[in-house]
């Protein structure tokens, strides 16, 4: 037991269960202390020693533009190949997040992979539980089916050589609590959007994590929904704007920690509203982590737009999906149309995850594309949100 942690006591647990033989006498049957979980003993021989983080002192040339053909375009509109073997499928809410049971990500046909891409494009993030066959080699193979894998310039890669295109998330013994470094709003981000071809399909597998209820959930925020949340004049205004995404802060953060920067940091201008090539939907393309400036407008206005978009991304629960991990669970997200945020406060548990993603198309805006709400309302008659408040007749506190 780590110093400072309280072992759940029978005395405390007594309060929570009743002896059926003598109903008035309380008896311990569970060890429960609210908010306190046993700390697992760290084995000397950790199962994923080869996937622990390292920061190799390498230097790579600038990324070159690569061809990208979105496999989601080949997917079935009803995902019938992928879902043919599913035992359960359910959405987290209307805007984002779907959980699929009964599918083994390590054994998909090409038709199922295409459907997976289409489902992830449509739902923003899709969760698969207990993917024990889906090891790091299978994870990379599936990633490569979707496109050229992206290698991160600063974050950790696994100790095992040859996996430099895998990003390692690791919090363990002696790790600082990242709340000391990041504000909760800044924790929201999409990955490496400063690249000319920011990633699309991204998988994250948790290898080791806190026990159930021990924290370390991840949240995703839909940028399709963020776009739909804006008023029509604001949508029009933002459609004419571009934003600067910069890797400078991330690179400086690594240098400050004495870590290598493996590729020179880049700064790229991207449209603030983009069109998704598979769904054809417009989405916000904003990143609280890397957007430094909106181009061509006064600084005060740029700062306020950034602040408004930060608020929309981070504080609109109806646009969020929150995932409580068990080990071997996998989240697949479309990094083009979602932001995500880790959550902290799970110390002193070890949490270890590996991420693989591929480079996608250069972001573009097709002014004739539709929003998610417009398209779903036209196709299925799903009512659109009333954004001006005129429909409010009553609300409860
Ligand atoms: O650790 C998490 O929950 C998310 C980490 C993350 O942002 C990433 O791997 O891209
Ligand atoms: Fe991330």
UniProtKB/TrEMBL annotation:
Which residues lie within the region annotated Disordered? Answer: 364-397
TauD/TfdA-like domain: residues covered: 90-356
Entry keyword Ion transport: no
User: Record's GO cellular component, any one?
Assistant: cytoplasm
Q: Which Pfam families match?
A: TauD (PF02668)
Q: Which GO terms describe its molecular function?
A: 2-oxoglutarate-dependent dioxygenase activity; metal ion binding
The stretch of residues making up the signal peptide is none
Alphabetical list of SUPFAM superfamilies matching this protein: Clavaminate synthase-like
Q: Which InterPro entries match?
A: AtsK-like, TauD-like_sf, TauD/TfdA-like
Q: Does the keyword Membrane apply?
A: no
* Alphabetical keyword list: Dioxygenase, Iron, Metal-binding, Oxidoreductase
Cofactor(s) it depends on: Fe(2+)
Q: Which domain of life is it from?
A: Eukaryota
Family membership, please give it: Belongs to the TfdA dioxygenase family.
Q: What is this protein called?
A: TauD-domain-containing protein
């Amino acid at each position: 037991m780590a110093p400072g942690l309280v072992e759940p006591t029978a005395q405390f647990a007594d309060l929570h269960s009743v002896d059926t033989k003598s109903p008035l006498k309380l008896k311990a049957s569970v060890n429960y202390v609210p908010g306190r979980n046993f700390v697992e003993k760290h084995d000397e021989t950790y199962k994923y020693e080869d996937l622990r983080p390292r920061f190799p002192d390498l230097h790579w040339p600038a990324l070159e533009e690569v061809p990208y053909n979105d496999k989601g375009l080949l997917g079935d509109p009803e995902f019938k190949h992928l879902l043919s073997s599913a035992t359960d499928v359910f959405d987290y809410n209307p805007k984002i997040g779907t959980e699929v049971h009964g599918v083994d990500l390590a054994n998909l046909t090409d038709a199922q992979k295409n459907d997976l891409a289409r489902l992830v494009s449509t739902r923003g993030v899709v969760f698969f539980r207990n993917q024990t066959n889906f090891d790091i080699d299978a994870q990379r193979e599936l990633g490569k089916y979707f496109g050229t894998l992206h290698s991160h310039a600063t974050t950790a890669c696994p100790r095992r050589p040859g996996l430099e295109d895998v990003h390692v998330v690791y919090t363990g013994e002696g790790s600082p609590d990242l709340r000391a470094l990041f504000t909760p709003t800044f924790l929201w981000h999409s990955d490496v959007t400063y690249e000319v071809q920011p990633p699309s399909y991204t998988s994250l597998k948790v290898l080791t994590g806190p026990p159930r209820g021990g924290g370390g959930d991840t949240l995703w925020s839909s940028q399709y929904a963020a776009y739909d949340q804006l008023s029509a004049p604001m949508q029009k205004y933002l459609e004419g704007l571009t934003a600067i995404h910069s890797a400078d802060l991330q690179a400086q953060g690594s240098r400050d920690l004495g870590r290598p920067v493996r590729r020179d940091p880049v700064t790229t201008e991207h449209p603030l509203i983009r069109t998704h090539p598979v769904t054809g939907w417009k989405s916000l393309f904003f990143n609280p982590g890397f957007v430094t400036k909106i181009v061509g407008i006064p600084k005060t206005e740029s700062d306020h737009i950034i602040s408004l978009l930060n608020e929309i991304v981070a504080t609109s629960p109806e646009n969020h999906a929150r995932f409580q991990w068990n080990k071997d669970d996998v989240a697949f997200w479309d990094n083009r149309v979602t932001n995500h945020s880790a959550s902290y406060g799970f110390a002193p548990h070890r949490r270890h995850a590996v991420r693989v993603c591929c480079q996608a198309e250069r972001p573009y805006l097709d002014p004739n594309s539709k929003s998610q709400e417009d398209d779903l309302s036209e196709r299925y008659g799903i009512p659109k949100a009333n954004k001006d408040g005129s429909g409010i007749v009553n609300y409860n506190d």
